[in-house]
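Complex 615.
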Amino acid sequence: MAARMNTLSLLNPSHVSLRPRDYRFSHRPLRFYTSPNPNRGALFCTCSTTNGESFVLTTPLYYVNAPPHMGSAYTTIAADAIARFQRLLGKKVIFITGTDEHGEKIAAAAMAQGSIPLDHCNLISQAYKTLWKDLDISYDKFIRTTDSKHEAIVKEFYSRVLAKGDIYQADYEGLYCVNCEEYKDEKELLENNCCPVHLKPCDSRKEENYFFALSKYQKSLEEALNKNPNFVQPSFRLNEVQSWVKGGLRDFSISRASVDWGIPIPNDRSQTIYVWFDALLGYISALSDEQEQPDLLNAVSSGWPAALHLIGKDILRFHAVYWPAMLMSAGLSLPKMVFGHGFLTKDGMKMGKSLGNTLEPNELVHRFGTDAVRYFFLREVEFGSDGDYSEERFINIVNAHLANTIGNLLNRTLGLLKKNCQSTLVVDSTTAAEGNEFKDNVEKLVDKARMHYENLSLSSACEAVLEIGNVGNFYMDERAPWSLFKQGGTASEAAAKDLVIILETARIIAIALLPVTPSLSWRIYEQLGYSRDQFDAATWVSFFFHTDASTTHHQHLMGDTKWGGLKGGQVMAQPKPVFARIENQTEDVDKGVAVGKTMKSKGKKMKQAQQVAGA
Ligand SMILES: Nc1ncnc2c1ncn2[C@@H]1O[C@H](COP(=O)(O)OP(=O)(O)OP(=O)(O)O)[C@@H](O)[C@H]1O
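Predicted structure with adenosine-5'-triphosphate bound:
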């Protein structure tokens, strides 16, 4: 979806009164309270359904005018971290991504490449799929708006809205930005009618179009937003949305007479469906079963409404205003939440395909590895705010957090275990930590991380996990097991237990950071002597069901993030670094750098990061 921002058409609203239906958002947040049970870490839930609950989340369907860039990757990495976290909670996740492939801009991009639109779309769509593979993106559905099932569902949806009396024909004259794929209000344009997003002049156009009666839904939308303030997140973006709605909704054109590359309007082949009206429906058509005849209600029954639309703030109006109104018109439920994150910027400008000021994710992955890229952007950019990229900061953060705090801690502990205990744990981690407050500290931090993941505060979740690494390092340095081993006797026995404690800490870090760094987490698990199957079966929360006279209660226990996974006798793998430090000749990599400050690369070649074996 391109950053086709803002303006609605300038038509008068059609004043059809709507008997407001109660468009309730079906979001029911999970509520937890801490168990009075001395079994720490046990949580009880007050919701009625938990395990097996489905959680549908989406990224935007990216516009295939050009290959993906770090901005597109950013949303997708964040969505993947959320999807992986929800899976650890035992939810049935349907993670949807895909490509938006119709419209004038695509036809123009294909022509500029000497190609035809479908060939162009195939190529670029594949570039997205390849990048998602390289970034360990665990999507469940990839929808292309040129898929035939999508076209069938768009047409069915259009017919429903038409039958509702919400589509009519009228003339429109205005200034059109092809890059935004949208008519613009003159007052929002720069000199020479230039689009403020793409800095290119808009064309003057006049044509007869089909319109969607958005204005009919003004009141229902206002009510829905008032009743469900969580619908738009972060909360400060809700004010923005409410003021758009209060400012008056105007009907918008949902067809183009001059564009061939699109889905034809049913019963009028002279026009194609406006690319936004088409693309938003990808979130539903993605749910449609491949085997079946495409059918709107069947698709809806496979998981709609979505729990979360994750988008950039550029397309908030489409998701928080147009889309809910379209769904109301078709009599379908609204998504539970729209989260509009900030922009990755370059020199203060939004990084984007149209401006061409993009950062190459492939290059970053090639040089620094997938975990580093995923971790840096999720840890460093507060989710919701803008963030500028700096290579120097990237290297500093990744080295300090992943190579030193986590990787080194594991590596030196395994080294000591090999030297002094034949790489074998002497006792269970539960026994090793008896009467030790350290374990409680770790569990508190894990719970903090869980809470942040649930609130989509991804940077804070990373911070809480890193804090576990910090306390682990502190414990190690304070206890100094290497000198206890030298003393022999009971000191040596205590040192062997200390190593179990640190390794259990590393195990918990691996699961708690798995949503962000899945490959690194697996490498840690492998070092701890686990199989891939054991790693894949890990959970954050496990469920315990019990029934009293009338009700089934769900007790949530902290699954593999609970202390006690490592058992006495377990044999660790041969120690090898789980995260290779990135070498940088230009600076002292461990020095902190001010957040958000961009520092240009000095142009010196950095030694290519070695992907650790198995990465
Ligand atoms: N600079 C960015 N920072 C964060 N997310 C971005 C950025 N650029 C694109 N995205 C993500 O991609 C979505 C827009 O997708 P689209 O395919 O239109 O990319 P685009 O690069 O913004 O396109 P264009 O530059 O042509 O407007 C955004 O809503 C956001 O999810």
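The CA atoms of residues 481 and 495 lie 5 Å apart.
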